[in-house]
């Protein structure tokens, strides 16, 4: 049966189509670029900063060179068997070993990707079979565990590869057991895979894995008795080796309990109880998925159990969590990508980019990898292959295309349903984190920023719009007005856009997607402005007499203007996103609000914002012009790529059924009333404006 499936996959991959072939070539090129970059990042570091764990073990003064116990210095974190395997490497030259080790690790990653792709549960579509290998290898290379392994010179890729080979690449029962036992000798928690073999009827493989583990461990005991005693008894199977067990690097249940402040017998008892529950639930789920024909998912679930119940689960040992990306979750096509996106984001980005620095979410942010592992092991409702939605999820509703002037542009398909909230929140958070990092990195010298400030000031004098100094000093002389603009500048910049996006998400899903894309384009274009044209705001221009009403007095004689520059890039003034985002808010409210007074109120927001940024000395008038330009460009790009805002009526919907929730009448072409209902399926019509657009 396996041979038949593989032959089918091979035939499917042989006829991909020209477009898929181009995509595959680009993906393989990306794999090559990532491999070269990873090698360069490792080998360009000074000798004392690259492959730090490997150098600590095998270097001239490494623990494998010196006499005595491996664990006396507290620098070796592997098992005694791992030390026994690594000892021959101490005779290798340092530079040659670093190069060989790095390239060897990359080859293991590539092999791991190929084995994982071959293990995908059948049936596999032709496009998936053709593109899966480069996609899998790319995800592995950009994941935090692989990057951490390459940086440290660790061996954590090898146990994962040995288990996958045991499950998918070798035949019989003896060799899979041997491979699993060797993997467990390198990483003891992997012995749980012997239990998986037992639960799925592979008793000989389970016994072989246990026997091999015992033999390898006994061999290490015989040759290194003192080290084995230190590892298995004194350090409780490696607990406490390396970093502090309560550090954020230890993403296990034991580490999380220590971070919550539990210690001593109570922590140990609670850890054992929770570990037992996770093992029972996780292994039962893994056995069920294995019997269902999803053996790769079963391996991923078992690996996630091992991550959670191991006393220490360092970042380089968490590659099992990435394998859980193969699980299918959700009955709707629009939700099918949520779980893979969550796994990829968690395994490629630090927790600080995924969740904000807010007290209520700090426990999740600090343990986000553990949360993902526990979710995969015990909670996520992966679909069975017998489910009718396994191959045919509930299709996504798309709008009928509307004729547009730019018909030659391949328009995006406009989705009518409401996007998944979790994925949307993650997208917003990640994009904003990337925006903040790029903005902070787009720094320039003080002289260049001040020179650009003088250019802007001269241009405004020539245009007779240099009103910043007059507005600033006028507002300073009116205390209540100064307090109002300071508060408005500091508060409404984020509150109003988020509120609008929230209302659109709930009430008008199709307009939410269109509006979210527009502000996204505007923000990306603004980042280009920050990078290419660093500009000092009026409050940081020496000799012009501006008063910084929001941040307080700045020391213009100090190169960094005090501690404020450590928080944000002070030269990201052109274009003004304070005004740009407020203008976006005003335009969206003008277009979509059902009441005239709402439209007027919406237009007051950009008016108050431009007054605030000028009066507080934080922006030039031309900065606001730049903010308006990027917003206009954002609307234009969205129109070109996604078509007009108004959409055609659903072809299979009648007026009676499409009248919205509660039997509301269908809006006329010129009405700006609500075109959605609470089910997330908006009613959309094409009026004269959309048919001519």
Write a concise keyword list for the protein shown above.
693 residues, mainly alpha, 29 helices, 60% helix, 0% strand, disordered C terminus
* Helical fraction: 55-70%
Number of continuous helical runs: 29
Q: Which structural category do the helix and sheet elements fall into? A: mainly alpha
Low-confidence stretches: 1-15, 559-567, 652-693
Gross morphology is: elongated
Largest sheet: none
Report on the architecture of this protein:
This protein is mainly alpha-helical. 60% of the residues lie in helices and 0% in strands. It is built from 29 helices and no strands. The protein has helices spanning 2-14, 18-43, 52-58, 80-86, 94-118, 126-142, 144-152, 157-168, 174-186, 192-199, 203-223, 225-234, 253-259, 264-291, 295-309, 319-323, 338-348, 351-354, 362-366, 368-379, 421-441, 446-463, 468-476, 479-507, 509-532, 577-592, 596-615, 621-642, 688-692. α14 runs antiparallel to α15 and α25 packs antiparallel against α26 (577-592). The longest helix is centred in the C-terminal third of the chain and has 29 residues, at 479-507. The protein is elongated, with a radius of gyration of 30 Å. The two termini are 56 Å apart. Residues 1-15, 559-567 and 652-693 have low confidence and may be disordered.
Describe the secondary structure blueprint for this structure.
Blueprint lengths: L1 H13 L3 H26 L8 H7 L21 H7 L7 H25 L7 H17 L1 H9 L4 H12 L5 H13 L5 H8 L3 H21 L1 H10 L18 H7 L4 H28 L3 H15 L9 H5 L14 H11 L2 H4 L7 H5 L1 H12 L41 H21 L4 H18 L4 H9 L2 H29 L1 H24 L44 H16 L3 H20 L5 H22 L45 H5 L1
